Amino acid sequence: xxxxxxxxxxxxxxxxxxxxxxxxxxxxxxxxxxxxxxxxxxxxxxxxxxxxxxxxxxxxxxxxxxxxxxxxxxxxxxxxxxxxxxxxxxxxxxxxxxxxxxxxxxxxxxxxxxxxxxxxxxxxxxxxxxxxxxxxxxxxxxxxxxxxxxxxxxxxxxxxxxxxxxxxxxxxxxxxxxxxxxxxxxxxxxxxxxxxxxxxxxxxxxxxxxxxxxxxxxxxxxxxxxxxxxxx
Length: 232
Prior knowledge:
elongated; TPR-like_helical_dom_sf; Tetratricopeptide repeat protein; Serine Threonine Protein Phosphatase 5, Tetratricopeptide repeat; CellSynth/LPSAsmb/PSIAsmb
């Protein structure tokens, strides 16, 4: 029953995406000088995992708006997202680094932090994320990202602090509750309230991530065993 429901949901989403593509193509035909429409169409194509067509569209649009710095910034940001989703991380960094628009630059820095995370370049990721945090200290997504980076670096105390700040701004994110629960396990705090919240808000994610819980539990148990042996 669940698989059938998932298939129906996927089919509905695909049909909706195709309608969005059709609508945006018509809008571009009617308004070829609106660069936002090219970005929106590329975003839909990226969500459909049609990365090649999204890249081609954005590069074509860049050629149409050569002298418009705002357009170039948005289109480069779009390209960065295409490359990020396609796991072409070096290309993603190159595209994000070309974003000059002041408002969009922070979004680009955050994506550069996420890209560096994917490349296991945690110090670089931390530097980019901290720059965004300085400008938006209460932003839930930035605090969660800093938590993820610090946890990957093994700094669980600081990671927990940033997850707490993220949850203070948005207490409906199952992923963040789950990550906070992992830090609680390592720090030997009570992880139950965090994990219960994660299961309530995003049960599928928690189910898929069970191996991470097992890995953390193994580390904590080994620490206890080592401590017991030293005590003897």
